[in-house]
Specification:
The chain has helices at residues 29-36, 40-49, 51-62, 65-82, 92-110, 130-133, 140-146, 149-160, 165-172, 176-202. The protein is an all-alpha fold. It has two domains: 22-117, Rna Polymerase Sigma Factor, Chain: A (Orthogonal Bundle); 120-203, Winged helix-like DNA-binding domain superfamily/Winged helix DNA-binding domain (Arc Repressor Mutant, subunit A), CATH 1.10.10.10. The chain is globular and about 55 Å long.
Length: 203
């Protein structure tokens, strides 16, 4: 397995950073080319470059530190094996985040149902709509946790990481229009919870 050094995520699922916008924060093309050519040191540098973004994606799906560490190692291995076939149709960061997302979802599917975090498979018809689990006195934190994994990742990628809708949709594996509707629904629910929090503070 390719071991990639990581740092434990702490606190909020949206830790504050001073990262540059995604379009100005891409790995050196020479590093990517070397990694695609089989240079393991270059591959490790490639994964480390996008590690923070991959970690945030995995956390939104899993909500568990140890599971996140395991998934990131598995995702790195999948990326290493798949790199020779990477055509570059999307950016390296998008490709790696997509692997992190699908690996996280695969991990959730293998988990016993009683320890599932949130609605990890929102694309299935039997999954409850987040609106059905938002109650009148739900806090902002509870409302965020009640969103589906895909909605949490979408909010992260678009509102925190600054990806455009098309790129974020590619990471999650849905159409941009679907992403837009999920973001609208998620923001509406969070806005309602925030307004409730504000009302509680004013009492």
């Amino acid at each position: 397995m390719i071991a990639v050094a990581t740092h434990a995520a702490e606190g909020s699922p949206f830790p504050r950073t001073n990262a540059s916008p995604v379009d100005a924060n891409e790995v050196d093309p020479a590093v990517l080319a070397a990694a695609r050519g089989g240079d393991r040191a270059a591959f490790v540098e490639l994964v480390r470059f996008y590690e923070r973004r991959m970690r945030h994606v995995a956390w939104q799906v899993l909500g568990d530190h140890q599971a996140m560490e395991d998934v990131l190692q598995e995702a790195a291995l999948r990326a290493f094996r798949g790199l020779p076939s990477f055509r570059g149709d999307s950016g390296a960061g998008t490709w790696l985040c997509r692997i992190a997302y699908t690996t996280s979802v695969d991990h959730m599917r293998r988990r016993p149902r009683e320890v599932t975090f949130g609605n990890d498979e929102p694309w299935q018809a039997e999954s409850p709509d987040p609106g059905d689990v938002i109650v009148a006195r739900m806090t902002l934190e509870e409302a965020f946790a009640a969103l589906s994994a895909a909605q949490r990742v979408a909010l992260l990628l678009v509102d925190r990481e600054g990806l455009d809708y098309a790129t974020a949709a590619e990471v999650i594996g849905i159409a941009p229009g679907t992403l837009a509707s999920r973001l609208f629904r998620a923001r509406t629910l969070l806005r309602a919870a925030l307004e409730h929090d504000d009302q509680e503070v004013q009492r």
